[in-house]
Amino acid sequence: MIKRILVALSGTPCTQSAIAHGVELAKQHNAELTGVTVIDPNRLQDVGPIPIGGAAAAHELAEHRMQLASEHIEESIGQFEKACGDAGVTNRILKETGDSAERLLADWRYHDLTVIGLRGLFEYGVLHDHGHLVLDVIGAGLRPLLAVSEAYRPIQSAMVAYDGSPLAARAMKAFCMLDIWNPMPVTVACFKGHNEEADTLLSDAAAYLESHAFATTKKIIEEKPRNAILETMDEREADLLVMGAAKRTRLGRKLLGDTARFALENSTKPIFLHH
């Protein structure tokens, strides 16, 4: 069950899609929607090396970047409030200032699901981190997370990427227990590789999903998951990819897996992540 959804209003090409997905889920679950913006002065005012005699021009550029970001924020807020108003969704706005990842993680603590774009976070037409901040907040522990692409389309089917690991099991269980999209058809895909138990794992995962009322089909993938995961998703015409994101190292840090990183950097469809 979800009752509070957080949507990152990032001023990127994915923002409209994030709003649309958030509104759709809020309507479906009678949930409250929170739109969050973050102004990060350190990132926005960093104009790079300043040549001798260039301090005044650098200051003017930094001020221009701050002003441009503020205009993009107001535009994103307007889009969010209109979409919520048109749909009759209860909503509120959080305007944060500070480190982008830290502020998002602080607000995430009091929401059941966070929706962000796959490409960029809190850029506002000024910053271009090519998705690195998205990877950072996932590695820092933000979960569960719905990361969406630029083109909005309703989520009507899913593919669960499963290899029997605790990481994959937690993602699958969160997908089921939150009950966000049920009922809908689900493909459970198991990556065989050198795993002799792949068939058993696949059957067990399918049985678990079916116990949660998902209509399930099974798929064994022979290739390495990094190379095949998105191709299999397209082949199965799945609208959503469900997967684990980051595992904890011996030093206690979370490390984003290669397959998850590849999917986040290359997917054109939404990804539900948990770890």
Structure report:
The protein has 9 helices and 12 strands. It has helices at 15-29, 41-44, 55-87, 100-108, 132-139, 166-178, 198-211, 225-235, 258-266, and strands spanning 4-8, 32-39, 91-97, 113-117, 145-148, 158-162, 185-191, 215-221, 240-244, 246-248, 254-256, 271-274. With 275 residues, it is of the alpha/beta class. β4, α5 and β5 (145-148) form a beta-alpha-beta unit. A 10-stranded mixed sheet has the order 3-2-1-4-5-12-9-6-7-8, with helices on both faces. The longest helix is centred in the N-terminal third of the chain and has 33 residues, at 55-87. It has 2 domains: 4-148, HUPs (Rossmann fold, 3-Layer(aba) Sandwich); 158-274, Rossmann fold (3-Layer(aba) Sandwich).
Nearest-angstrom radius of gyration?
20 Å
Q: Which runs of at least 5 residues are low in confidence (pLDDT < 50)?
A: 248-255
Helix content: 40-55%
* CATH topology call of the largest domain: Rossmann fold
Q: Multimeric state of these chains?
A: single chain
Structural class: alpha/beta
Q: Please state the average pLDDT score.
A: 87
| Proportion of residues in extended strands | 15-25%
Would you list the SSEs in sequence order as H and E?
Answer: EHEHHEHEHEEHEHEHEEEHE
The CATH homologous superfamily of the largest domain is called HUPs
CATH class of the largest domain: Alpha Beta
- Strands of the widest sheet, in order across it, are 3-2-1-4-5-12-9-6-7-8
CATH architecture descriptor of the largest domain: 3-Layer(aba) Sandwich
Helical segment count: 9
Number of domains: 2
Major sheet: 10 strands, mixed
